[in-house]
Amino acid sequence: MSVHETPQANGSGITLRPHQAEAVDRIVAGLSLPASGSMPVGGLRGQVHMATGTGKTITAAVAALRLCPNGVIGVLVPTLDLLTQTIEAWRRAGHQGPAVAVCSLGADPLLEALGVRCTTNPTKLALWASKGPMLVFATYASLAGQGLEDDQDDTPDAAAPGVLERALRGSYGQKMAPFDLVVIDEAHRTSGDGSKAWA
Predict the structure, then answer these.
(1) pLDDT in tens, 10-62
(2) What residue ranges of the chain have pLDDT lower than 50?
(3) 198 CB contacts (<8 Å, ≥6 apart)?
(4) What is the pTM of this model?
(5) Among positive and negative, which fits the CA dihedral 95, 58, 60, 86?
(6) I need a labelling partner for 146 at 20 to 30 A (CA). Which of 14, 36, 110, 152 fits?
């Protein structure tokens, strides 16, 4: 079996296992516009099902690099611990451009070393993510209002728009660029009652 070398922005590469290379090729094919060039009515969507420990994060990162090398890419994860692990993996996979984490980790030494800014302020997020290439990492909690100090309204209502939605809507003259691609890790956690903040 052969391996698949993926060039990185810094000139090095990672070696994908054969099943990862095949998955990347299938993801890219599945999320590419059809021959007509027209976006399907429901958009382009897909799911990646791989066993635990087989490299889904790296697979998604490499596919995203091929699909949107200069785009605004959103990466949603369920927890802060997974957020930092995911950022590390995406950097290893070749995403060396600007990145922001929608979280309250502030001056986290690992994120600083990886060149990732952190904020829970939608205006800052909109300013920093106004164009690609840009990676925006966030937890599912960023989709719903959290009643944080940086929130523009003081309503700690879980149904209120979260940081991401407010940045995309725009505030104080700053509007975040729309995502070209969104990757949702552990997506099975988003299913359930439609009233759930991130269902």
Answers:
(1) 333 689 999 999 999 999 999 999 889 899 888 899 999 999 999 999 999 99
(2) 1-3, 7-12, 149-155, 158, 198-199
(3) 140, 141, 143, 144, 190
(4) 0.83
(5) negative
(6) 110
Contact (CB, 8 A) for 89 and 80: no
Alpha-carbon gap, residue 80 to 86, rounded angstroms: 10
CA 149 – CA 11 distance, rounded (Å): 41
**Type of residue numbered 100:** V
Q: Alpha-carbon distance 198 to 68, whole Å?
A: 24
pLDDT of residue 193: 60
Neighbours of 42 (CB within 10 A): 6
Spatial separation of the C-alpha atoms in residues 102 and 99, rounded to whole Å: 10
Print the SS3 string covering 108-168: CHHHHHCCEEEECCHHHHHHHCCCCCEEEEEEHHHHECCCCCCCCCCCCCCCCECHHHHHH
Place of tokens 């070209």: 180
Query: Do the beta carbons of residue 29 and residue 41 sit within 8 Å?
Result: no
Q: Where are the alpha helices (DSSP H) in 34-73?
A: 56-67
- Within 10 angstroms of residue 77's Cβ, the number of other Cβ atoms is 22
First-to-last C-alpha distance (Å) of the chain? 40
- Compute the distance between CA of residue 168 and CA of residue 77 in angstroms, rounded to an integer: 19
